[in-house]
Amino acid sequence: MNTQNHRLTVVIFGSTGNLTGDKLLPALESILNDPLVGGDLTIVAVGRRDLDDSSYYDLMSGHLKTESLKDKIIYIKADVGQPDGLSGLGRFLSERGLEDTEIIYYCATPPSFFETISRQLYEYKLAETDRKSTRLNSSHTDISRMPSSA
Length: 150
Ligand SMILES: NC(=O)c1ccc[n+]([C@@H]2O[C@H](COP(=O)([O-])OP(=O)(O)OC[C@H]3O[C@@H](n4cnc5c(N)ncnc54)[C@H](OP(=O)(O)O)[C@@H]3O)[C@@H](O)[C@H]2O)c1
Hints:
- Helices cover 25% and strands 19% of the residues.
- The chain is α/β, with parallel strands linked by helices.
- Bound molecules: NADP nicotinamide-adenine-dinucleotide phosphate (NAP).
C-alpha cells in the first residue's frame, strides 16, 4: 500500500462510552505512527451529548498517554438511537474533506443499535461500494458485509 497519500477516517458511534475511552482511543493513539495509518488519521466521534471538539477531547483525554490525538479528533452531535440520527453525517464528512478518505465505521454502542446504524449508513449512502474503502466493525463482530446501494 502506498502510505504517502493514505488518509484514514475512523468514525466511532458510541464515542462517549467506556469501550471508546478504555480501548479504542488508546489503540488508535498507539498506532498513530504506524506506516499503515500513514500519519493522516481523523477520528470522528459521534455522540448524543452536547459537546464540541474541545470538550469531547477534555472528556476523553484522561484515557490517553499523550496529546497526539488532540488535533485528530472531531466531534459531531448525532443520536444513533434516532431513526434519522445520522442524516447529517454525510454532509459533516464532506464539509471536512473526509468523504474520499478510507473510512472505518466502528460501532461502540450496545448491539441493539447496530441495525439502525447499518441501515442509516446504507440509506444515507455513507458506505457506497464504489468508495475507496469502507468497513463497518463493532466490538462484537465484524459486520462489514453491508447491503449494497449500487
Ligand atoms: N467496555 C469495554 O471494554 C467493552 C469490551 C468489549 C465489548 N464491549 C461492548 O461494547 C459495547 C459498548 O460498551 P461500553 O462499555 O462502551 O458501554 P457504555 O460505556 O455504556 O457506552 C455506550 C455508548 O453508547 C451510547 N448510547 C447508549 N445508549 C444510547 C442511546 N439510547 N442513544 C444513543 N446513544 C446511546 C452511549 O452514549 P452516552 O454516553 O450518551 O450514554 C455511549 O457512548 C457493548 O456492547 C459492550 O458489550 C465493551
